[in-house]
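Pilot study result, target chain (155 residues):
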Amino acid sequence: MKTLVLGLGNPTRCDDGVGNRIAQVLQKEIHDSKVTVLEINAAGLELLDFLPDYDRAIIVDAIQTLGGKAGQIHRLSLQGLASGKYPTTTHDFGLGAALELGAKLGLALPKKITILAVEVVDVTTFSQDLTPKVKQAIPKVVVLVLQEIKGSQPQ
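Predicted structure:
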């Protein structure tokens, strides 16, 4: 199964770079020609440049939720994302809306998309350093991604 692992984020905005950091670790861990690991600073419609022609995608990103705790790991489904069905500009396209558009355009998008998101604290400070609890989540997410690639689910 041809798999894409995308580590999303801005590595110069503190915790927002957690997806990039996880991708960097996975690039050293994964030696399978059917798995591509990329770290990118893209969102919305830009993701359509990377997703086509893969059977599945695992997307790793930062998230901030009400009541979330730093370093908490969320497994999200596409159905759980806000729809954003009628974006007013191309900058408003979320992942769900971008995938819907990609499907309507006939792009060969992954049949299975898993989203792993790390609850973050600071995404505004210009820094390449992660806050401590977010940094501690990296090895846990790496294990989750490796399990996902092998097809096993965490218990």
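One observation from the pilot: The chain has three helices and five strands. A full batch analysis is planned for the follow-on phase.
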